[in-house]
Amino acid sequence: MYFRTATLGTLAAAAVALAWRSAPTYTLQSTGAVTLHANGSEARFGVVPQAVRGRPILIVSLGAAASAGALQLTVAGDRPPAAGRYPILSSWDELATDPTSFHASFMPGSVERPLGWYHGESGWVTITETGPDRMSGTFEVRARGFTAADPLDEEQWVTVRGSFDAAGDSTVASITAIR
């Protein structure tokens, strides 16, 4: 009887641990022109086929519907990159042909009330774990853009740091495949 109870307890604990590990999460913090802290469970990635010059891109989306802010990391390719450290590029032109670097966009605030928009100029993304349905990592992005209060001044700078454990999402690929 004790053995059965102990076994059930161990199995239940393992199931809870696996369920906890499977929940997507992200955290990000910006300093500079806009200071904020955001975290949540909106951490997803997916492939958009033939998105840039007929080639697929993989998009990591953190906090897309959050009220504090959102970050999008984009890399050329049709699958998650291998574990490693990748630079942030400032040009979209290079993105279509370079599967070893990321492009970043940061929008502080919510979709209804954006506080500005920033384009990644430099930094890095470190992928720590990767698979078809899961990708984890950390990032530091130095970005230039504008605040909503002064959209004509595009020389405002922010630094965005954080981490993510993102779940694979086939929604984006499915929608573009329907077209």
Shape: globular
The major beta sheet can be summarized as: 7 strands, mixed, barrel
Q: How many structurally independent domains?
A: 1
Sheet-strand content, in percent, reads over 45%
Going by helix content, strand content and strand pairing, the class is: alpha+beta
> What sequence of helices (H) and strands (E) makes up the elements?
HEEEEEEHEEEEH
Regions with little confidence, pLDDT below 50 for 5+ residues: 1-20, 172-179
**β-strand number:** 10
Task: Describe this structure as you would to a colleague.
The protein has a 7-stranded mixed barrel. The protein contains 3 helices and 10 strands. The model is unreliable at 1-20 and 172-179 (pLDDT under 50). It is α+β, with helices and mostly antiparallel strands and 179 residues long. The N and C termini lie far apart (59 Å). The protein has helices spanning 2-22, 92-95, 171-178; strands at 25-32, 36-40, 43-52, 55-62, 69-76, 84-87, 102-108, 116-130, 134-147, 156-168. It has one domain (24-178).
Write the layout of secondary structure elements.
Elements (H helix, E strand, L loop, with lengths): L1 H21 L2 E8 L3 E5 L2 E10 L2 E8 L6 E8 L7 E4 L4 H4 L6 E7 L7 E15 L3 E14 L8 E13 L2 H8 L1
Parallel strand pairs: 3-10
Antiparallel strand pairs: 1-2, 1-10, 3-4, 4-5, 5-7, 6-8, 7-8, 8-9, 9-10
Can you tag this structure with a few keywords?
disordered C terminus, 179 residues, disordered N terminus, 10 strands, globular, 3 helices, alpha+beta, seven-stranded mixed barrel
